[in-house]
What does this fold into?
Amino acid sequence: MIYVIPSLAAFLMILLLIKTEIFSDTPNIRSSHDKIIVTSGGIALLTAYLIYSILNDHMHVNHIIGISIISIVGILDDKYDLSKLTRFAAQFLSAIFILSTFTFTIPELFILIIGIVFIINSYNFMDGIDMLATSHALFLLSSFLLLSYIDVNEDLTYLHENIILMLLALIIFSYFNMTPAKIFLGNSGSYFLGIYIVAIAISLNSINIITFSILHSIFLVDTLYVLIYKFFNPNKALSNNMFYELKNRIAYIFQPHKTHNYQKMAIKCKSHMAVVGILMLYNILWCFPLAYFSIIHPNFNQLYLVMSCLPYTIVCIVNKTGKEA
It folds into this structure.
């Protein structure tokens, strides 16, 4: 029952969103589709999560608040295109709520907040083709579930139930998100998955920051590569005014574009699902074993992180990621 009701609610919410078309995504320069498609599928995931939270006594109230804040802002952003300042403020606030249930020093807290905001945005940046964000979430949560069993002394029953519930909701959503997609995650979905995955990872003792980064390496490398490339290769002539130049470069980073590596791969392969398949094989056959080794041989975990990122970085270089066509 603890799985049936939230999963059924997610399914019904997806059908309602598709039928009513209240939220729709109009193609722009960043889009990998050429027609208007229903979006804000994150509402279905949030619905499942909130219903599960009501049925479960072990959920952290601050986690529920933090996840709800960023998801609601994502829903509003899907509908009304909120300002960047509003979105960043919501991301910082959500990160603070998630971290408030743990004990950190001030420097650690500052670094973790920045890291969480980056992860949320990496998820948003990488949600540009059918099934990529959902399949990556399925991979991450499944990996968390498997790797958490390494620490058999920790009672994680409630977290395992939480993960399994979200895996079921994502599988249901994936059916409608496969090419040709009937619904997109939208900002509500990418924001929700970004903060939800962070909340789960922080709650698991077996998942440290290096292990998480290894599992998330495709999204980390693709996002960082594009941000760095665009920052150092602005689309306008250089200015003698340092403040204006910095402002111009930051603005350029956040302009819509189709220069991520996965987007270039989708153009070359002419298939979203082919790219998703390739990247998931990379995750399963390369990143997951390295993440496992980072737990059982922690003295070498920095090496494993480099190994997880290096091949994908090379592909980014070959595909001229970040460069406009």
Observations:
- The chain is about 70% helix and 0% strand.
- The radius of gyration is 19 Å.
- The first helix runs from residue 4 to 20.
